[in-house]
């Protein structure tokens, strides 16, 4: 059930407060038996930051019940107003602990990269969000679809790595790794350093989503979404 924006109901709510709300919700999910499998970075494009009037990205947590296998069907009724974004996922081989992580540290700590589709959704009515709203809502993250092809980074230029997004076999978006703060690994480095403020670090084995390579695409029931990353592979999901 969608709600009115927190930013309208609590005028004094700031970003630090919003992250504390997010962390409290994640702790409750863990108490219910769910496990953290990774993190996501959002608002990595200049256009999205300008829209919300901010100058840095945000982040959210990925839980085990949010992960979807490549090609799986998901029930559209489980969402409020879903959209999809294609991202180059990072699987870490080593912990990354801020505050001085740079993108080279990220590349050296990366075990694999994998094609992913993040399904974003908002509990806020009509996506009328400000930064504090999406942060409190776990970065508006709902699900993550993980491809089957895991690649080492050797031989890939992740900054120029292209992506083509299809909806029902029609191309709806294109993008490249540079959309995520200029390089996906820079977005992961930002995340590692941001998490240090909250006493959290990125852990070996976690899946990290560094940000969308194009704008978010709305979806509806019976839509099939697929993202093609060239030699990095493809990933798809169908809403039923």
Description:
The structure is a single chain. The protein contains 6 helices and 13 strands. The radius of gyration is 17 Å and the shape is globular. Strands 1, 2, 3, 5, 6, 7, 10 and 11 form an 8-stranded mixed beta sheet that branches. A 5-stranded mixed beta sheet has the order 4-13-12-8-9, with no helix packed on it. The protein has helices spanning 6-9, 15-31, 46-52, 103-109, 131-136, 184-196, and strands at residues 36-42, 58-63, 67-69, 73-74, 83-92, 110-120, 141-146, 162-167, 170-176, 207-209, 217-218, 224-228, 234-239. With 240 residues, it is of the alpha+beta class. Helix 4 crosses helix 6. The chain starts with 5 loop residues before the first helix and ends with a strand.
